[in-house]
Amino acid sequence: MSTVTASPATAEPHKKKPKWLRVKLPTGKKYTQIRGLVEKYDLHTICTSGSCPNMGECWGEGTATFMILGNVCTRSCGFCGVKTGRPQMVDWAEPEKVARSIKIMGIKHAVVTSVDRDDLKDMGSIIWAETVKAIRRMNPDTTMETLIPDFQGIEAHLDRIIAVSPEVVSHNMETVRRLTREVRIQAKYDRSLEVLAYLKRNGVNRTKSGIMLGLGELEEEVIETMQDLRNAGVDVITIGQYLQPSKKHLPVKEFITPEQFKKYETLGLEMGFRHVESGALVRSSYKAHKHIH
């Protein structure tokens, strides 16, 4: 069954979210404990700043996501709620701050991500490597996923990530080939594929990528992107529903049904992905602690 009933150009945005997008309020002892620590020590996580629908579940399992290199991005993707513009100076104390936050919160599996820093000669890759090393020093039992930008495909920057050996290295494709120019304005579909292939060729044990649905893509385009990722050696894929952060961002063209997400999950496993997380509320870090296995 195709997920699209009209062409992307004519499909009308849905005004009301369907029932399967309702979010349960987070609860549980571990969630309450981590929430208290975040507020007491003013710790920064994407979970809170991004109002992630899975925050209660992830925190309850001892997983949290941290963003480094500031909160202003040099790129202006049509889907992303992060501010764009001229970023602040690099905070060279940030690796220790992140590592200390993880220790205070008792995080068992940390996901680290960042804005794009095309303004920096090293694209931020040195801070990236130093952050992984600081987390390892202060939290030797914590496993890690690094959700990296494309570093413009420059191998020297990617090599810094490979050298510090996070358990999982992730880079999100975000959308299908046809929509890449509109959705990820300064990114390139084939460059992202090559980044993922380069990571796998050069010894990364577990690679991962994610895509959003509901931007006007066709079912066959989704399947093509999944196969492209698998051909690049990607081990884990996440597939979720795009939700419009503000009126300035790209509109939702369609809400994908749970049945269609299940179909993509089945297809992904048949393609050979080790893990497939496919559902309306799935985000990049969803069940991230399981993806190291």
Question: Would you give an account of this structure?
Answer:
- This protein has ten helices and nine strands.
- The chain has helices at 29-41, 46-49, 55-60, 94-105, 125-138, 155-164, 180-183, 189-201, 219-231, 258-271, and strands spanning 63-68, 72-73, 83-84, 109-114, 143-147, 168-170, 207-213, 236-241, 275-278.
- The strands form two sheets. Strands 1-4-5-6-7-8-9 form a seven-stranded parallel β-sheet.
- Helix 6 links the parallel strand 5 and strand 6.
- Helix 5 (125-138) packs parallel to helix 6 and helix 9 (219-231) runs parallel beside helix 10.
- It is globular.
- Mean pLDDT is 87; it is low at 1-14.
Q: What is the typical, i.e. mean, pLDDT?
A: 87
| Gyration radius from CA atoms, angstroms | 18 Å
What about the largest sheet?
7 strands, parallel
Give me the number of helical elements: 10
Instruction: Report the order of strands and helices.
Output: HHHEEEHEHEHEHHEHEHE
Uncertain runs with pLDDT below 50, 5 residues or more?
1-14
Structural class: alpha/beta
Distance between the termini: 32 Å
The proportion of residues forming helix, as a percent range, comes to 25-40%
Arrangement of strands in the largest sheet: 1-4-5-6-7-8-9
Strand tally: 9
The backbone outline, from C-alpha atoms, is globular
Tell me what portion of residues adopts beta-strand conformation.
5-15%
